[in-house]
Amino acid sequence: MRISTYKKLHAEGLITDGTLQRAEALESRRLFSLHWELRLLLYLGVLLLTGGLGIVVYKNIDTIGHQAVLAFIALVTAGCFYYCIRKKTPFNWEYVNPPNAVFDYILLLGCLSLLIFLSYLQYAYNVFGDNYGLATFIPMVILFAAAYYFDHLGILSLAITNLAAWAGIAITPLSIMKEGNFATHRLIYTGLALGAVLIAAGRLTEQRRAKPHFEFTYSNFGVNLFFIAALAGQFAYDSTYFLWFLALTGAAFFCYTRAMARRSFYFVLILILYAYIALSDVVVRLLAEMSMRDLSPIFLGLFYFIGSAIGVAILLIRINRQLKAHDSL
Amino acid sequence: MIAYNRRSLDNLAIQYEAMEAFEKKMLTPEEYSRIRIAYPFHFYIPNAFIRLGIFVLTVIAAACALGLFLLMGLGSGDRSIGTMLIVLGVISYGLLELFIHAHKVYQAGVDDALLWIASALVVTGINFTTDHLSPPLESFIILVLAVAGTLRYADRLMALAAYGALLSFIFYRLAEWGVVARAILPFVVLALSAGGYFLFTRLAAKESLRHYHPCILLLRVATLVTFYLAGNYYIIREVNASLSGGQGPVALGWLWWLLTAAVPVFYIVKGLQKKDPLFLWTGLGLVAATIFTVRYYYHVLPAEWAMILGGTVLIAGAYGAIRYLKTPKYGFTAELSDDPHLLADLHVEGIILAESFTAVAAQPADPGVSFGGGTTGGGGAGGQY
Question: Using an 8 Å Cβ cutoff, are B300 and B356 in contact?
Fold first, then answer.
């Protein structure tokens, strides 16, 4: 609040003398914070450094000895982990503050270079053989362990991505959105299973209060993965699409009640949109089956989208009000 | 001039400030609730995610309605389609006013969507009705619509669109005038950006324009960026090539290189001197643009070594700065500050705010109307998402 506003409110008798004086005292020794600027630079630095190292290794595989490259990456990894283990605050199942400003970034650097180290090991010496499952399983375990041990949300996201890679899907939230690539049917079922596991993990995380702040990351990955896989199933199976639709709306309703109970606007929105996409697919399929002698299916379709979009918008407005009304009880 | 209720806007601004102060424990709960009762506002402001959803759905509904009209008008000429689009645009403006006045929406998704739909329809409609619009005329029409949209609805992106349209208008006018005009083009944009910056900085201090402060803030950033771009070697060279058709180095190369290198540094130094995050962040972003420009013409180092070197310097520099500022020096600190960040001026915290207001002066909610007026009911900080 600006000092002028404090003064105005004080003149109107809405705030006390003490509050105004406290605000003025604070204003006089106010500092300009470079917190976010410096963090951003650190983060960029870590990304550039690991990216550059990765390219150097990739390009010089033939010229530098494998041992030299491996030794250097191992050194970076070991250095980072040594620092993190020495500096870390004692483990706790609740949220722990990082010991200092750079801790998180050193840990990130360590984990990223560990990943490079392992994939290089696989590339150069084929340590895991043709056992690709193992090659993704080991980094996944290490990442999960690091995420919990050092309490790092970013590493948890890395670990979940690795879990999916292990299960056979390359996912990041962005690549799910971009590709929506569920070409083979096995991937649809893997996506469904993995999504369900992650949703369950989110729920357990919260119930057992085991790093409860990890819950959102689990649920976010889980819900998106599950419903995109389910939509892909509905699109892909022409004969049983209606069953998929029923299952999808059922699951959406289940998640929706939870999201409402937790008053999560984000989840409420994406669940409604997923269900809306599924419903629209059913409507479009039904219209497409109608006779195409005139334009009436197209007109009906347009009317459906106008009506349904307005309807869902009104629904969102109602829900917004309802969620807030619950708050004031 | 502004469509929204001015008193509500003022009260909302005070409530924003009070909420922020309350969260930092700079106000007692009693003071906070007194302020909220004394400064009620009557807007429907949904949660940011809901706003996004409503925005998308409004666009879907409008697009399908447009499709319906186009289907019915199938076969009639361009002119009648153009007229229809303009009429639909005017209807959208009408709907927008209706939502704002009757249903008191404010940054609710519907108003954002309708404003942009209406403007787009009118511009497209004009294009259909006339056989050929010259680029300057087209830019001018967009400029007029965007300025009107900015003044009436204080929409931030509209303000940016207006600035872009102004630049494009000047660009096309000058490009028509041949070689001489082309030569002075960069200087015109440089002068315009600098002039615009000083103008907007002065306007930002005006209390009477308080409802437009978020727009003006964005415009200030935009002028800083266009000032840099007008002097950037890559831009100069490419624009020159596209206008004259000739490739190769441009005249006054040293001047453009100097500007490319010096402007970001100047912004950062200025930002630190004046403790102005606006300059600081713009400068930091533009350093990246300069690095890409230099690397585009001179391959000083292979990319990967440049990345390693740059990464190491960044880590070391930032680490050093954090250690150096462990105890605050010269009024700087590396700790999180109590002040709202630059983003705060753009009312990003509306996300939180929309969730945390309890029903203040109980407005009789209007159950018959779907977008019902009244206050944003309910409050208490809920889940963040």
Answer: no
